[in-house]
Design brief:
- This protein is 27% helix and 23% strand.
- It is an alpha/beta fold and 195 residues long.
- The chain has two domains: 57 residues, no CATH class; 117 residues, Dna Topoisomerase Vi A Subunit, Chain: A, domain 2 (3-Layer(aba) Sandwich), CATH 3.40.1360.10.
- The strands form two sheets. It has a four-stranded antiparallel sheet with strand order 1-2-3-4, with no helix packed on it. It has a four-stranded parallel sheet with strand order 6-5-7-8, sandwiched between helices.
- The chain starts with 17 loop residues before the first helix and ends with a helix.
C-alpha cells in the first residue's frame, strides 16, 4: 500500500490574488497528454482577471494544484506526433492560440505556462521538424521566440519566427485570425522565407 501525504491546500485552487477569489471563473481547460494520450496535467484559464493555474490529477480522482513531479510536455502532443513530419509546426505562445491555429487546419502546439517558461527538453519533440514560432507582439513574446529558436538550433530541420503584420502591441495569432488572417497566408510567408 502506498501512502500519499497531501496538504489540505493541495486539494483546492490557490487563487492568484484575493481579487481572483471574488471574481475569477474558469473559462477554459487545456489538457496536456503524453505520447499515447495519457493525461499528465491541465491548465485552467480564468477570467476577470485573466490568470492561469496548473493542476495534476491524483489517483483519488481529485485534482492537485501544482505540477510537483509531473512530466512536462508540449500541448497537443499526440496530434503533433501524428502529423506528417513535413508539415510546418506552429509553435504559439499559449494554448488558446494553439487551438485557434489548429482549428485553421495547421499543426500547432505551445509550451506550458507561457513566455519565458520554455525548457530545452521540449525541443526533442520537434526534432527534424519545420517549426514556425508565432510569438505575441510584445517584448516578452520576442524574447520568448528568441529563446525557443536558440533551443531548437541543430534539432529542428528549419526554424522561422513569424512577425504577424497588422497585430497590435500585445496581440497574438488569435487576434490575427480574428482580423481575417488565413492559414494559406501563414504558409505563404513560410514558403517565401525558404527561398
Amino acid at each position: 500500500m502506498t501512502t500519499i501525504i497531501l496538504d489540505f491546500s493541495d486539494l483546492y485552487q490557490r487563487p492568484a490574488s484575493r481579487h481572483t477569489i471574488r471574481t475569477g471563473r474558469p473559462v477554459a481547460h487545456y489538457h496536456y497528454r503524453d505520447e499515447i494520450g495519457r493525461l499528465l496535467f491541465k491548465v485552467v484559464r480564468y477570467a476577470n482577471p485573466k490568470s492561469f493555474a496548473q493542476w495534476r490529477p491524483h489517483s483519488s480522482g481529485l485534482w492537485i494544484h501544482n505540477l510537483n513531479g509531473t512530466r512536462r510536455v508540449l500541448y497537443r502532443l499526440p496530434e503533433l506526433l501524428a502529423a506528417d513530419r513535413f508539415q510546418w509546426v506552429f509553435l504559439c505562445e499559449g494554448e488558446k492560440d494553439a487551438d485557434n491555429t489548429a482549428a485553421h487546419g495547421l499543426v500547432a502546439t505551445t509550451a506550458p505556462m507561457g513566455a519565458g517558461k520554455w525548457r530545452d527538453e521540449y525541443a526533442e519533440f520537434l526534432r527534424g521538424r519545420r517549426v514556425a514560432i508565432v510569438p505575441d507582439n510584445d517584448q516578452a513574446g520576442r524574447e520568448h521566440a528568441a529563446q525557443i529558436a536558440a533551443s531548437l538550433e541543430g534539432i529542428a530541420a528549419f526554424v522561422r519566427v513569424i512577425k504577424l503584420v497588422g497585430v497590435a502591441e500585445h496581440g497574438d495569432v488569435s487576434d490575427w485570425f480574428d482580423a481575417g488572417g488565413a492559414a494559406a497566408t501563414l504558409l505563404g510567408v513560410l514558403r517565401e522565407s525558404m527561398r
